[in-house]
Amino acid sequence: MKSLLKIISFIALAVTLVPSFLVFKGIISPELSKTLMLIGTIVWFVSASFWMNTSDEKEEEVI
């Protein structure tokens, strides 16, 4: 489950970054870029919040 969330969050991060390059190249419009970046940002924050800043059980035993 945790690895699936990581994959989803990295894909969402790519959806946040790639549209800016596509607008620069003239492939997509700025309006579509804004929409894709907003969707990518929301998905990233939702998916990354479940797996970031969680310590593994092994780290807790050491501390």
Describe this structure in words.
The protein is mainly α and about 60 residues long. Helices cover about 85% and strands about 0% of the residues. The chain is built from three helices and no strands. The chain has helices at about 1-25, 30-50, 55-60. α1 packs antiparallel against α2. The radius of gyration is 16 Å and the shape is elongated.
In short:
This protein is mainly alpha-helical and 63 residues long. It has 3 helices and no strands. It is elongated, with a radius of gyration of 16 Å.
Classify the secondary structure makeup into a structural class.
mainly alpha
Mean pLDDT: 88
Gap between N and C termini, in Å? Answer: 25 Å
Strand percentage: under 5%
Low-confidence stretches: none
What is the H/E string?
HHH
Helix content: over 70%
Please tally the β strands and state the result. Answer: 0
Radius of gyration: 16 Å
Main sheet makeup? none
Shape: elongated
Q: Compute the number of helices.
A: 3
List its traits.
63 residues; single chain; 3 helices; mainly alpha; 0% strand
Helix-strand blueprint:
Blueprint: H1 2-25, H2 30-51, H3 57-62
